[in-house]
Amino acid sequence: MITGSKELIRDINSHLVLESIVNNGPISRADLAKALGLTKATISAIVQVLMDEHLVIEIGSAKTDKGRKPILLDLNQSGGHVISLDVSVDYITVLTSDLKGTHCFVKQYKNSSHDLEILPILISIIEKTIEGLTPTVHGVVGISIGIHGVVHNNHVMFTPYYSIKEENLSDSLSEHFHVPVYMDNEANLSVLGERTFYFDYPNIINLSIHSGIGMGILIDDQLYTGYNGYAGEFGHTIIVPDGRACPCGNHGCFEQYASERAILKDYARRKDSTEVSIDALIRSYQAQDSDALEVIQQFVKYMAIGINNILNTFNPNLIVINSAFTMYIPDITKQIQESLCNRMDKYCTILPSGLQDTAILLGGACVVIKNFLGIDKMILKP
């Protein structure tokens, strides 16, 4: 039983009602009362407040065999806008969505911030984005920024492949746009996105494999980031002692062998080329080019080693791999699973990302929406 002041209990009940509507709507007042163990009068009073705040709407009646048809309630998803950004090495991608992470619009910009301050660039992109939004009752409710590096308490601690000079980036953006700004590691946002919008598993490890390798850790539906945000920096675990140099200062880091950047470098060396694109490598692989086959097998080998370590450390329900390789080579996750030499692999499923390029962006949208609504849980399936 929840105990405390009347105001506290009323506030807690209000959040529970809104959370239940978000996750189970459309839903009737009677079903809310039954699910939450509250009286119909309490539910009606809370719902009225939520409707007055333009957070909840009535959307029609439920179908019943007899009697009065109950009115259904749902989140007023068109009541506000969410802006979510993914700041990667080469591109800054921005997504706008409604309060359910749907009706999305995505646009990509070249990241020209290298050796420059990124704040004015982000301000320009966000201002252009806001100009294209239709007016809503709540306007822009928040902004999320995914960073390819270590983030702790909304501050960037370390980025291996690009520089962010501003120490208080999120605070500066929040002051400029007068909305909350949330900043987190891209793999953390990815695992939240996969859980919220796609996979029905409470224990998920998300591997984001791009220029580096990040790991988002969800344990019993709770994001685990460690003491100061460094949990999940799996790309910087050492798998080859005295191996290749890494920007983090170590040698032999996992991402120096299994990231997309590393695999492309290996393939370019074999072809005596200075640079090779992901598309070119995948086309060569599909054409059975021997060098392409070998570097992809190297990817499978190192991923199996890494996942073997993950299984023994975290024992997740699901491992999600987000990479161009898993997107365009359909059987590669099966190859990785078959390469595992771990008795635990039969208890864990390995799948490619369900959200692919939008995982970070939708994970960021999830963070903004939950904070705006004041709810702890949001599970929305497509």
UniProtKB/TrEMBL annotation:
One GO term of the biological process aspect: D-xylose metabolic process
Domain of life: Bacteria
Cited InterPro entries: ATPase_NBD, HTH_MarR-typ, ROK, ROK_cs, WH-like_DNA-bd_sf, WH_DNA-bd_sf
Keywords on record: Carbohydrate metabolism, Xylose metabolism
Keyword Aminoacyl-tRNA synthetase attributed: no
HTH marR-type domain: residues covered: 14-57
Record's function text: Transcriptional repressor of xylose-utilizing enzymes.
PANTHER family attached to this UniProt entry: BIFUNCTIONAL UDP-N-ACETYLGLUCOSAMINE 2-EPIMERASE_N-ACETYLMANNOSAMINE KINASE (PTHR18964:SF149), ROK (REPRESSOR, ORF, KINASE) FAMILY (PTHR18964)
Family: Belongs to the ROK (NagC/XylR) family.
Protein name: N-acetylglucosamine repressor
The encoding gene: nagC_8
